[in-house]
């Protein structure tokens, strides 16, 4: 099945795989970076940085910028919802945890834009692969690293909600299928005050999941949440 910018097809093992049908224009990426980054610059370098399952990343740098930035260009696997949820989730994690995630400076959740793709402009967090420096690390640093990682995992685990779905900004609540399940559900106690619901900055809406958007499933009329329990969530998956 093909959609704008994306095609699903079977590989030699019969598994569905996705591929992009077009590539972003570097000159447009440079234009977007100059438009949204602070200041005005005559020169700005944009270079391919990395790619993942559904994204390509481009590094934006300039001697006039305080740091490097990344523009993450996304395939339209779940148009609008995927990008809106990713940005809201990054913002939520930055607000309520100490997990080092990049700050988002600008984003577009529509492929009907100058670039022709959905995109996110964010800070580039410094670092190197652990495998590159492990042998040279002091013993004390090696011993403290697992504790630090466990702390990040614990703060992430503490963010528990009363619905199963994806996070969004409240500004798009009318588009993401939020549901009120009444007073029968109780929030799971945590050490974090969760800012999520009516009259807050965030809401839980329909789930962004490969299970729901793979191949022709994106066009099917189906329940995509949010769900009040794991049972309803699993039932929705079996009905796709």
TrEMBL record:
Pfam families: APH. Residues 48-146 form the Aminoglycoside phosphotransferase domain. This is Unnamed protein product. It comes from Aspergillus oryzae.
């Amino acid at each position: 099945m093909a959609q704008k910018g994306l095609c699903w097809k079977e590989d030699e093992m019969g598994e569905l795989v996705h591929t992009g049908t077009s590539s972003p224009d570097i000159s447009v990426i440079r234009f977007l970076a100059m438009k949204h980054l602070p200041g005005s610059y005559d020169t700005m370098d944009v270079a391919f940085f990395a790619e993942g399952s559904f994204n390509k990343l481009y590094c934006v740098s300039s001697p006039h910028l305080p740091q490097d930035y990344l523009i993450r260009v996304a395939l339209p696997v779940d148009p609008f919802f995927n990008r809106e949820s990713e940005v809201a989730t990054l913002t939520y994690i930055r607000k309520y945890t100490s997990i080092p995630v990049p700050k988002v400076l600008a984003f577009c959740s529509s492929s009907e834009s100058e670039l022709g793709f959905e995109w996110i402009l964010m800070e580039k967090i410094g670092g190197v692969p652990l495998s590159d420096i492990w042998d040279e690390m002091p013993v004390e640093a090696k011993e403290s690293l697992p504790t630090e990682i466990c702390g990040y995992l614990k703060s992430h685990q503490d963010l528990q909600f009363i619905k199963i779905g994806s996070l969004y900004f409240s500004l798009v609540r009318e588009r993401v299928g939020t549901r009120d399940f009444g007073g029968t559900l109780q929030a799971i106690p945590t050490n974090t005050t969760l800012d999520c619901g009516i009259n807050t900055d965030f809401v839980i809406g329909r789930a962004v999941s490969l299970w729901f958007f793979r191949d022709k499933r994106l066009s099917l009329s189906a329940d995509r949440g949010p769900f009040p329990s794991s049972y309803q969530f699993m039932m929705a998956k079996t009905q796709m």
